[in-house]
Structures are given as C-alpha cells and as structure tokens.
Amino acid sequence: MRSLTEKELLNVWEDCIDLSLTETSLHLIGAASSISDLSGIAALSIGQRDVRLLQLREWMFGSRLKNMAVCPHCSESIEWENNVNDLRLQPILADAGKVFNAEIDGFKISYRLPTSRDIFNLDHDAYDNGNSVNALLSQCILEIKENSVTHAAKDLPQNIIAQLNEHMSHEDPQADITILLTCPSCAGQWQAGFDIMSYLWSEINSWARHILQEVYILAKFFGWSENDILKISPKRRQLYLQMVQS
Questions:
Q1: SS3 22
Q2: 134 burial via Cβ count (<10 Å: 0-12, 13-18, 19+)
Q3: Which residues contact 59 (CB under 8 A, 6 or more apart)?
Q4: pTM
Q5: At what angle do helices 6-16 and 21-32 cross, to 10 degrees?
Q6: What are the DSSP calls for 170-237, one per residue?
Q7: Which long-range CB contacts under 8 A does 208-217 form with residues at least 24 apart?
Q8: Core vs surface per residue 143-154: b (16+ CB within 10 A) or e
Q9: pLDDT, tens digit, 9 for 90 and up, residues 88-112
Q10: Three-state SS for 11?
C-alpha cells in the first residue's frame, strides 16, 4: 500500500461521492494498493480495513487528528487532538479467513472476524429492529457446540452473544475505537466512538472541494489544464494563488 497522488485521490473522491462509507473505504484501499478487484479487501476484518485507512490518512494528511464533540451532560463543545499512533491498535496483516475459537459458559464456538462483506449482507430489517450486532455476529459464527450437541447461532443466549462480541473485539481491536473524554466545564465523563472512515471521508471531501477551487482560479487566470495544475507542488500552487490574489 502507498499514498495516493492528488489526481488519484480526486478520482476516488469523484467515484465515491454517491457510495456508502463502507464502499468508499474499499475503493480508497484498492486505489492505494493498486487493486481493482475489491473482493479481497472486502474480506479483510473491519480492524484490518481500518488500520489500513489510518495508515493512508497519516500518509496523506499527517499524524495529527483534531476532533470535536458535544458533552452529553452540559452540551458544552469540546475539542481535543490525537496522534495517529495513539489510535493504531494492531499491525497491518493479511488476515482474511482466519478462524478463531472461544469457550464461553460451556459453548465451544468457532468464528471468523466481521468483514465489510458481512456489513453489505446485513438486511435493513436488522438495522431497523436494532439487531445489527446480533445479525453481524451470526454471519461470522462457523460452529457452535455444547456437550457435543451442535447449535444454531440464533439459539445462543444474549449473554453469550455479548461475550463473543468481546472476544472478537480482543482479536480485532482496531474495529471499535472508543475515547474517554472529560468535559472541562462540568467534569462529566463519557466514551466517544472514533470512526476512521467517517473522519477521513470528511477530510477528503473538504480537501477535494478546496483543490477544485484552486484549480478553477489558476485555470481561469493562467489558462492551465487541471492535469498541469495538479502536477505543481502544493507549496508552489499557493505562491501562484498569492500572485493572482495580490
């Protein structure tokens, strides 16, 4: 995997404007890996997908992550900053298809980790009824045995499902990032989730619109093509823009 050029990133942005974040994540990794067949990327665990996105984000926009949240206790807006390394919880590995085993309260469960493909396979009813976690885990369970008796995933008690979710989180920690926040105004504490794909897409969207504005100004003033403008380094483009606006 490698960083994307500005032209490549603009192309991915344009192609993904109307896609879901899950689909967009696959296209980004595919472009950075020079892979057109995204099925292998869709088979990566969510954590392995997200650690790749985190690496890609660092290459393209740097290691500092600025965040903002609203305190659920007093509605105060707070800002904080993380480093990419603070959120990098696992190395990049080729993990597709790996099988794990867990023993939970007498149940012997073989499972694999959730993937983007599993998210695509979730039906809308699971989301609407609040059963998305159960439906997602059910797709990942390969075998359940209790005293040599085989069970179906739908027969697992809810407490077993919850513990299995913890097992999966332990094996794929990058998939579920939470940050403990403290409000400076009321000292209230809460855990906020961090979704690298949402964060990265917001940055890419803002960046792309800014770049297109630069291209428009320079093309209008100098008559250069988009390709020619994108070949100019960002620092030199800024100097040209200063000349235009002076």
A1: helix
A2: middle
A3: 2, 3
A4: 0.87
A5: 150
A6: HH-GGGSEEEEEE-TTT--EEEEEE-HHHHHHHHHHHHHHHHHHHHHHHHHHH---HHHHHHS-HHHH
A7: 208/9, 208/10, 208/13, 208/14, 211/6, 211/10, 212/10, 214/241, 217/241, 217/244
A8: ebeeeeeebebe
A9: 999 998 876 789 999 998 899 999 9
A10: helix
Contact 109, 143 (CB under 8 A): yes
Q: H-helix or E-strand containing 143?
A: strand 141-146
Distance CA 47, CA 50 (A): 5
The C-alpha atoms of residue 26 and residue 32 are separated, in whole angstroms, by 10
The separation between the first and the last C-alpha atoms of the chain, rounded to the nearest angstrom, is 41
Token pair recorded at residue 82? 């993380």
Q: Is the pLDDT of residue 123 over 70?
A: no
Amino acid at 161: I
Confirm if 91 and 106 have CB atoms less than 8 A apart.
no
